[in-house]
């Protein structure tokens, strides 16, 4: 199942992203997926400044990655991000990284929630957070 994409994030794979086999390191996928998620929420008004001001922000509860095709040095890639499912305080975001040939290089599902930094617990989604994720209220 593929969600409707709420964002597209283009990127160029660089030497620092490689492993000893000459393709992208598995840990780099996590870093780039996070970069793309920050780009999504920041562009929708829920960046780091807002999180620090409100003391409410996203947390990753679970992550699952499936590696399908390699990405190599200096290859253009892109990440799509979309909501796979949402229920109560939990959302599953699906991010797919495509290589320059348009193949799914990696499919990642992230289970996320909205965390109150003062109360130290998950909370119901706010209207601002719904907007950041493109959820209907």
Could you explain the architecture of this structure?
There is one protein chain. This protein is 23% helix and 42% strand. The chain has 137 residues and is α+β, with helices and mostly antiparallel strands. The chain has a single domain, classed as Thiol Ester Dehydrase, Chain A, CATH 3.10.129. Strands 1, 2, 3, 4, 5 and 6 form a 6-stranded antiparallel beta sheet that branches. The mean pLDDT is 94.
Write out key terms for the chains shown.
single chain, 137 residues, alpha+beta, Thiol Ester Dehydrase, Chain A, 6-stranded antiparallel beta sheet
**Rg:** 16 Å
Based on DSSP secondary structure assignment, what is the total number of beta strands?
A: 6
Q: What is the overall silhouette?
A: elongated
Portion in beta strands: 35-45%
Largest sheet: 6 strands, antiparallel
At CATH level 3, the topology is Thiol Ester Dehydrase, Chain A
Coarse structural class = alpha+beta
Q: Could you estimate the helical fraction of the residues in percent?
A: 10-25%
Number of domains: 1
Helix-strand pattern, N to C? EHHEEEEEH
Mean pLDDT: 94
